[in-house]
Design goal:
Blueprint (H helix, E strand, L loop, with lengths): L6 E10 L24 E9 L2 E7 L12 E5 L3 E5 L1 E3 L11 H8 L4 H6 L4 H9 L3 H17 L2 E7 L6 H17 L3 E9 L10 H18 L5 E6 L6 H13 L3 E6 L7 H7 L4 E4 L5 H7 L5 E4 L1 H7 L6 H6 L4 E3 L13 H10 L5 H7 L2 H5 L18 E6 L5 H4 L6 E6 L2 E2 L1
This protein binds N-(iminomethyl)-L-glutamic acid (NIG) and fe (iii) ion.
Length: 422
């Protein structure tokens, strides 16, 4: 991180995105038709003081700056300035890689076939259990720095490759250390219920009991996670087990955020909503009852298009969800098995290309709605006075629509986190 003065002025901005207009209260999330309504200020300036957005406006009316001393000025001529990405679903802490499974899928096996032969999550768990905390920390920090350069300013990170009390806590302690060493805002999720370890295969309920009675109390006691996740899916955790796990997580003050409807329509969304889940994630398959369960619930539908791309499964029906009036977030799902990439510009492009979201919808789903899915929308995700100055400055581009259009190109030129250039 390079030190810069506490005051910053970005001037001549071609388009300032996700602006909360003067006098309006900043929304916590955007749903249905509102997701497409993005306020864009053209030919704009934005001022930052003490790490926060202190003012912004049109260049013809640059009145907000009264004290020009020790002010760093960035000329954003021809560039887009927008809130940094809020990536609300990742498994960024992991050991090793799984390119062998990638090749197996090319040869015709499915993600579920590979898991059934002891690959998949259990493959990563074996690797992680044998990896020292220090090594996990260094590799995770390198990944975090790399995604920050692509504009990620806030991120949720899950455990779930430990699957023993020791290894799950080891992962969450790595997340705690990342927080101390990175300018990225981080939220932690306990995902002990990611898969059944080999030794519990014949007694799965005993693993659920271990999570509830052994792991969860320790995670809560050490304050290691804000949320609890469960992989609710055929072959993983049933609706009844999910129900029991989420009941317990709420008792310990860990709000649910779950993996559900990745391969099958299970009724798990209804279970999650009943337990006041902050988000339900994946949703590659969705039924009418799922949509009804989500309506008015305050639960964010988080979609992960780069996972669908990588393991060749259907894409979530974003249009159906948005057109039903629901809120939708986009996240990366960065993990070694189903999505070995944390590239949010690519996620946004896939949101447009494969999920048929408009650029405005995809950008707001990856900023404000992602912030909501981490309880951060009061401080992040849009351009409003008083919000944290987590900002992306692009290369010169004709418009924000050019960002997803030019998919695969890195158009992120500068990233500012907490008011500092990184
Ligand atoms: O979100 N579906 C469950 N969990 C991860 C994949 C985990 C893995 O394959 O390592 C996901 O896709
Ligand atoms: Fe995931």
């Amino acid at each position: 991180m390079t030190e810069s003065p506490t005051k910053l002025l970005i001037k001549n901005i071609r388009e300032l995105l996700c602006v909360v207009p003067d006098g309006e209260t900043a929304p916590k999330l955007l749903q249905g038709a509102a997701l497409h309504k993005m306020t864009v200020l053209e030919d704009a300036w934005l001022a930052v003081e003490d790490g926060k957005i202190s003012d912004f406006g049109s260049m013809y009316d640059l009145h907000g700056i009264t004290d020009w001393s020790s002010l760093k000025v960035i000329d954003a001529e021809g560039k887009v300035v927008m809130p940094a990405w809020c990536d609300s679903h990742t498994h960024l802490v992991f050991a090793g890689s799984r390119e062998g499974e990638f090749v197996d899928r090319i040869r015709g096996l499915s993600y579920e076939d590979i898991a059934a032969k002891g690959g998949g999550i259990l493959n990563s768990a074996r690797k992680l259990q044998d990896t020292p905390e220090e090594v996990l920390f260094e590799s995770a920090l390198a990944r975090l720095n790399a995604v920050a350069q692509l504009g990620t300013g806030a991120i949720e990170i899950k455990s779930g490759y430990g699957l023993t009390p020791e290894a799950e806590l080891k992962m969450l302690r790595v997340v705690r250390r990342l927080r101390e060493h990175s300018p990225v805002t981080i939220k932690a999720t306990f995902l002990g219920a990611h898969a059944f370890p080999e030794r519990f295969k014949s007694v799965p309920q005993a693993y659920v009991e271990q999570i509830v009675h052994e792991m969860l109390p320790q995670v809560a006691e050490e304050g290691l996670a804000e949320y609890m996740d469960v992989f609710c899916e055929r072959g993983y955790f049933s609706n009844n087990q999910t129900d029991q796990l989420l009941e317990a997580s709420n008792q310990y003050g860990l709000r649910p955020k779950i993996h559900v409807n990745q391969f099958s329509i299970s009724g798990g969304i209804e279970v999650a909503v009943r337990h006041n889940a902050l988000s339900v994630d994946h949703l590659e398959v969705v039924g009418d009852a799922d949509i009804e369960a989500l309506r008015g619930s305050g639960t964010m539908a988080t979609l992960l298009p780069s996972c669908s791309f990588f393991i060749n499964i259907p894409y979530a029906p974003a249009r159906q969800l948005i057109d039903a009036g629901l809120p939708v977030a986009l996240a990366s799902d960065y993990n070694p098995g189903s999505t070995p990439s944390g590239n949010m510009p690519l996620v946004v492009a896939m949101g447009c290309i494969k999920l048929r979201m408009t650029p405005a919808e995809a950008i707001q789903a990856a900023t404000l709605n992602g912030a909501y899915a981490m309880d951060l929308s009061d401080e992040l995700g849009s351009i409003a006075v008083g919000k944290k100055a987590n900002l992306i400055i692009t290369q010169p581009i004709p418009s924000h629509e050019f960002l997803p259009y030019a998919f695969g190109s890195n158009l992120i030129e500068q990233v500012i986190l907490n008011g500092q250039l990184i």
